[in-house]
Amino acid sequence: MANHFSQLAKKSRTNGNAEKIAKEQPGKPSLDIYKLGDDVLRQNSKRITKVDESIRKLAREMLQSMYAAKGIGLAAPQIGINKELLVIDVNFEDSAAEPLILINPEITDFGTTLNSYEEGCLSIPGVYLNVVMARCIQHEMDHLNGILFVDRVTSKDDLNKELIKEGFNEKDVISIN
Ligand code: ZN
Q: What is the pTM of this model?
């Protein structure tokens, strides 16, 4: 998975010459992050046909907002834009490691191992639950298809407890199990 991931990243990376976004971002995300219950999170995203300055600017703003929100991934739908654009940085503590900017990503090989692990989302703050899926990249790709990680949670009791605790509505979950 790691190998494939970096290949994918290389293929779609667009920020080779772009200015570096500081990973320490004091203050708030510059973009509003939409939350569970907002319709924009449930739309299918459109392919990006041309990578121009507006897309590069959007990617930079998404990185800034992701770092400011202390997230490891952010998909364009989460900031209200239904385009196939993701930013990911699982090495947020390593200031030298480059983030990934993925445009029109496709997963061709997940390998055979699926792990259960605790997942969270900037669009569902405070809610952490176990799901089974390939980490981070799957989560962010799901956003492009209008899927949220809570849709994949199998334990409905845990799910509802967590959602209520954080003020979310269980009716906004579209279970795919
Ligand atoms: Zn998310």
A: 0.83
